[in-house]
Design a protein that fits this description.
286 residues, 7 helices
């Protein structure tokens, strides 16, 4: 009797132990494999976003290839946001939303030249305002938790995000712009590519921080941010030279029917217009 009871208990215990160990093993193995796959995908997507962002500088604006690459860029950002949220938690999620907001609104700015914003696009601006507020307020929470590196990052990015979100809501939803045009009829053009370049900054910071490229966490954010700012300044200067815009003008002469004509035609007209203005200025000096 005792031997039978011992046999039954031993059998059940062995079966239980084996089943539990097997389930735990496969669960941990699947989690580990998923983590490795996402850890492998995330930097590749980040590098892909960086390359496509650089490629857009040199592509012919308004062309079909430029539009296709732009759509791929925004879609890739969504994948980067998802993988970054899994790997980095709430902090990286907020930083990812910061970048995705600028990528998404960069494309919305172009579409807003052709038609009024729909409900989805308005929701993007409102949602961005909420995330901006969370990001800025979280900087004080992180400071209280003595996480000084992320507190500084959230504070700096938060100020930029809140300021941009307020301007966006005022301009695109309330129809009351708080910022004067500095490039005249070309304002949307510069706003579009500047937003796209700003979206590159958190993509680079997320990549460098998750991969730990620098031992000091702050450097993983400061160096990509500095690189992104340099790229924005270079691109802005290049486009101003291309369009013969010597310096930003608050009184740029508007061009009629800008919405209905191709971008290449607008560029030629802008060059001709600025050349004529330069000749007139030289004649006045003489």
């Amino acid at each position: 009797m005792l031997e039978k009871a011992h046999y039954i208990c031993h059998r059940k215990l062995s079966h239980y132990d084996f089943t539990t160990i097997k389930q735990t093993f496969f669960k941990n193995k699947q989690t580990l494999m998923a983590h490795k796959v996402i850890l492998f995908i995330h930097p590749i997507v980040g590098f892909f976003i960086f390359l496509t962002g650089l490629l857009q500088i040199f592509l012919k604006k308004g062309g079909s290839f430029h539009k296709i690459v732009g759509k791929i860029y925004v879609s890739a950002w969504l994948l980067l946001l998802s993988t970054g949220a899994y790997l980095g938690g709430p902090i990286m999620t907020v930083i990812g939303l910061f970048g995705y907001y600028y990528a998404l609104t960069g494309s919305i700015v172009v579409r807003s030249k052709h038609r009024p914003l729909n409900k989805y696009e308005k929701a993007v601006f409102i949602g961005g305002g909420l995330v901006a507020a969370v990001m800025f307020l979280s900087s004080f929470v992180l400071l209280w938790l003595k996480d000084y590196s992320f507190a500084a990052v959230f504070f700096g990015f938060g100020i930029l995000f809140v300021r941009s979100a307020i301007q966006d809501i005022s301009k695109y939803i309330l129809q009351k712009p708080t910022k004067q045009q500095i490039y005249g009829t070309w304002d949307w053009y510069f706003e579009h590519f500047i937003r796209m370049f700003i979206s590159l900054i958190p993509a680079l910071t997320a990549f460098s921080s998750i991969r730990g490229l620098f031992k000091e966490m702050a450097l993983n954010f400061l160096i990509p941010t500095g690189l992104g700012i340099i790229l924005i300044l270079i691109a802005e200067k290049m486009y101003r030279v291309k369009l013969h815009i010597v310096k930003p003008s608050k009184t740029a002469k508007p061009m009629p029917n800008i919405i209905e004509r191709p971008l290449e035609t607008l560029e030629r007209e802008a060059i001709a217009q600025n050349s004529q203005l330069a000749k007139t200025s030289q004649a006045k000096v003489k």
